[in-house]
Every structure is written in structure tokens, then in C-alpha cells.
TrEMBL record:
Residue intervals passing through the bilayer: none
Name recorded for this polypeptide: Enoyl-CoA delta isomerase 1, mitochondrial-like
Top-level taxon of the source organism: Eukaryota
Pfam family, one: ECH_1
InterPro entries hit by this protein: ClpP/crotonase-like_dom_sf (IPR029045), Enoyl-CoA_hydra/iso (IPR001753)
Organism: Drosophila arizonae (Fruit fly)
Gene behind this protein: LOC108610928
Gene3D superfamilies linked: 2-enoyl-CoA Hydratase, Chain A, domain 1, 6.10.250.170
Length: 281
């Protein structure tokens, strides 16, 4: 039975949080009325694999929060073991071509929206964050991870070429030499390693504490003029955003060509089967 203590805590929390009216199905958006901070929770069980629909909902949520002039955006997951497993490999294996085009376009849209978001952004990484999961987290300005998680851009291990935005994200967070080596090796880091190299800013013992740390980070901007803050952020990220725009069409075509290759399909099939077998054994 629920103790009266936890019930009153829940009621208190409910009184300051509101769910956005247009909250979509695969992302839940909650705005804390006291702090003005919006939390976006990825909610595509079991592992928040990024398919067309999740990417669509995530994009909509980011834009909605930005337009509603929230004080900041925190990204987290409803799954307590996995932040996001990255792109849904089923979308790339034997794909429907139009859908594959849509998938990549939506991934690009999400990256643009999150990396270029005018608001302070933070990720409460409450589970594993390989590949696209790491991409989302490193698009944010601040990251807190939980113990015993794994995070990194492992695309190369699947035979996939990390797109240009993976490079931008890593170069924005890590020293150049560390970023390059991590990408060409497709390194996945443990919580301790990620903290040590600076891939994450902090470690928290629970999701609640991670969310608290993210809120504290966003609160550091309370006295800062929001426009001056966002324009300064854009000065740092603007060149990446511009280069991305100039290469976006080429990268889309490269992606479609890449996944159309028979060897790529064979490799993806083997990788997917390997993930499934793990659960059968
Ligand atoms: C010259 C320029 C060129 C530029 C363009 C070229 C582009 C080339 C393409 C580049 C693409 C890059 C961008 C991003 C890529 C990606 O994100 S690829 C995805 C990579 N992801 C992974 O490798 C993660 C694999 N998964 C895991 O490591 C684990 O599942 C987990 C996330 C750590 C969770 O572990 P656990 O909780 O133990 O769950 P599992 O039992 O392993 O998984 C549950 C079920 O989910 C299935 N699954 C796991 N990951 C995926 C996934 N990514 N997609 C689809 N399905 C996945 C898994 O098989 C299980 O299924 P069932 O057994 O059927 O339950």
C-alpha cells in the first residue's frame, strides 16, 4: 500500500507539473510551473528505438517547448534501463525506400532542433545510450548519467559511417583527438569512462537526482538574458548548423545509397539477429 508520505509528495508534484495539451504519443512533455522547465520523456517501449514516429513526436515536442518559451528543456526516458537504443535497425533493414528517406530526414530535423535549440538543454541519461541515443544526449548542453550505463557512438561497429552531426556533437564535447578516436573506434564508454573523458558532466544515483541536477544546470541561467544567451549559443554552434545545411541533401542521399547496398543489408541482418539471439539464449 502507498504510504501517506509518498502520496502527499505525489500530490505536491502534481500541483506544480502540467502535461502539455498537445503532448504526443511517443514523447510525454511535462512542464514544471514553478521552474518553467519542460521535461521530454522518450516513451517508445521497450528501448526507445528511434523510428519515424518517435523522431516525429520528438521534433514536435522540442519545437512546442521552444515556442512556449519554457525556461529550459530536459530530455529523459521512460525506460529505467535504456535512454535510447539509437535508430530502429528495423527501419534500415530491408527498408521501404520512402520510409527510409523519411527516417533520415526526421533524424536530421531532430538534430537541427535540439542542437540549435534556443533554450538551455540537458539530458538526464537514465539508461544505456548507444549510437542515436548518444547523439540525442550530446546535442544537449549538459549531461547527467546513471551508474552502470553505456554510452557512445558505435555506428562504425555496425559498418555504418557516422554522419557529420555525430562529429559536430563529439567535437563540441570532447577534445578533438579523443573525439576522433572514439568515432573511428566506435567506442562505447561505461559511466566512469564517460565522466572521465568529459562525455558526460556528472553522475547521479537515480533518475530523480539526474533530473534535479539538470534543473540546477538550467537554473544557472536564471539571471541571464534569454536572447543574449541563445545568440551566444548560436555563435558557438552556428558554423556547424550551416555546414550541416550545406551537406544535408548529400548526406540523405549517401544514407539511402549506403543502406541499399547488399553487403550493408547482410550486415544489418546479422547484427539484428545477434541482438535477438541474445534474448533467446
Ligand atoms: C559519406 C557520408 C555518409 C553519411 C551517411 C551514411 C550513413 C550511414 C548510416 C549511419 C547511421 C548513423 C546514425 C545512427 C545510427 C544508429 O543509431 S544505429 C543503432 C545502433 N544501436 C545499437 O547498436 C544498439 C543495440 N542495442 C543494444 O545494445 C541493447 O539492445 C541495449 C540498447 C543496450 C538494451 O539492452 P537490453 O535492455 O538488454 O535490451 P535487449 O534485450 O538487447 O533489446 C530488446 C529488444 O530490442 C531489440 N533492439 C535493440 N536495439 C535495437 C535497435 N537499435 N533497433 C531495433 N531493435 C533493437 C532487441 O533485438 C530486442 O528485441 P527482441 O529480442 O525481439 O525483444
Amino acid at each position: 500500500m502507498m504510504s501517506s508520505m509518498s502520496l502527499s509528495r505525489m500530490l505536491r508534484a502534481a500541483s506544480v507539473c502540467r502535461t502539455m495539451s498537445t503532448a504526443t504519443k511517443l514523447t510525454a512533455v511535462e512542464v514544471n510551473d514553478k521552474t518553467g522547465i519542460a521535461t521530454v520523456t522518450l516513451s517508445r517501449p521497450p528501448i526507445n528505438a528511434l523510428n519515424v514516429e518517435l523522431l516525429h513526436d520528438l521534433y514536435q515536442s522540442i519545437k512546442e517547448i521552444e515556442n512556449n518559451k519554457s525556461r529550459g528543456l530536459i530530455l529523459t526516458s521512460s525506460n529505467d534501463k535504456v535512454f535510447s537504443a539509437g535508430l530502429d535497425i528495423n527501419e534500415m533493414y530491408r527498408p521501404d525506400k520512402d520510409r527510409a528517406r523519411l527516417l533520415w530526414t526526421k533524424l536530421q530535423d531532430v538534430w537541427l532542433a535540439l542542437y540549435g535549440c534556443a533554450l538551455p538543454t540537458a539530458a538526464a541519461i537514465n539508461g544505456h545510450a548507444p549510437a542515436g541515443g548518444c547523439l540525442l544526449a550530446t546535442s544537449c548542453e549538459y549531461r547527467v548519467i546513471l551508474p552502470q550505463c553505456r554510452i557512445g557512438l558505435n555506428e562504425i561497429q555496425l559498418g555504418l559511417v557516422p554522419p557529420i552531426f555525430c562529429m559536430f556533437n563529439f567535437l563540441n564535447v570532447l577534445p578533438r583527438r579523443v573525439a576522433e578516436r572514439a568515432l573511428v573506434q566506435g567506442r562505447i564508454f561505461t559511466t566512469e569512462q564517460a565522466l572521465q573523458i568529459g562525455l558526460v558532466d556528472d553522475v547521479a544515483s537515480s533518475k530523480e537526482k539526474a533530473l534535479e541536477k539538470c534543473s540546477q544546470f538550467i537554473a544557472t541561467f536564471a539571471q541571464t538574458n534569454p536572447l543574449a544567451r541563445s545568440l551566444t549559443k548560436l555563435k558557438f554552434r552556428g558554423a556547424d548548423l550551416q555546414r550541416f545545411e550545406s551537406e544535408r541533401t548529400n548526406e540523405l542521399e549517401s544514407f539511402l545509397e549506403f543502406i541499399d547496398h547488399p553487403q550493408m543489408q547482410e550486415d544489418l541482418g546479422i547484427y539484428l539477429e545477434g541482438l535477438k539471439k541474445k534474448n533467446r539464449n
